[in-house]
Amino acid sequence: MKKETKISRKILRKITGAILLLFVAVPSLHAQADAGSVLQAMAAAVKGLGNYTVSFRVTAEGNSAAGEYTVSGSRYYMSMGDIEIYSDGRVRYEVDHFDEEVLIDRVDPNDRNILSNPTRAFDFAEDSFISTYKGVMNESGRQYDVVELKPRDSDASVRNIELTVDKTTRLPHSISYLADGISGFIIVEVLRIGAAPNVPESLFSPDMSNFGDYEIIPFFE
């Protein structure tokens, strides 16, 4: 049991920001016309949801784990396995229930680092990726556009990215990619994505009284 939990934590730390590629990616300036139109339509469809919640399943290294992700502007909350991540747009709290610790750090609004501020990780994806339209995939009676995204930075930690987008809803369906520190492809499947109009503000800030026995580790004074 401990081994499975640790594997899930390892995978989570690699996918936390990459999952957001599904929701905020925009087309490259040098993308093919078809790839650009698919990504633009996806971005518009997600934006049209306003606040939204995503249920997803991640498969990597022979293991599978489910999670949920809620976004409201610059605020977000994610849960998967023993990890919960809260951000009110200013401070990020990573709660590890397995190791009983809370990591706290400020969010730099100008930071585009994929892990420390994932909501902005792909704000300028046109400078970071080359997009190529790969055709249509048929699955379970539905059709999905397939887009390949190649990082311009040869040292990028995420690579060989393939995104599928529902041709009817224009919403993301799946993403697969390679990431440093993980063997084989990571596959993220969107099980459900929908509007969340009544998200309470408390969702994005943890109640620290619930973690009285946890080690609190701040990364700022």
Mean pLDDT: 80
Number of strands: 12
Q: Which series of helices and strands comes N to C? A: HHHEEEEEEEEEEEE
| Quaternary assembly | single chain
Q: Give the percentage of residues in beta strands.
A: 35-45%
Describe the strand arrangement of the main beta sheet, using strand numbers. Answer: 7-8-9-10-11-1-2-3-4-5-6-12
Main sheet overview = 12 strands, mixed
CA-CA gap between termini: 36 Å
Low-confidence stretches: 112-118, 120-124
> What class do helices, strands and sheet pairing give?
mainly beta
Mind explaining what this structure looks like?
The chain is mainly beta. It has three helices and twelve strands, in the order αααββββββββββββ. It has a twelve-stranded mixed beta sheet. The longest helix is centred in the N-terminal third of the chain and has 15 residues. The relative contact order is 0.22.
Structure characteristics:
221 residues; globular; mainly beta; single chain
SSE layout:
Layout: H1 2-15, H2 21-24, H3 33-47, E1 52-60, E2 63-72, E3 75-80, E4 83-87, E5 91-96, E6 101-106, E7 129-139, E8 142-151, E9 158-166, E10 172-179, E11 186-195, E12 215-218
Parallel strand pairs: 6-12
Antiparallel strand pairs: 1-2, 1-11, 2-3, 3-4, 4-5, 5-6, 7-8, 8-9, 9-10, 10-11
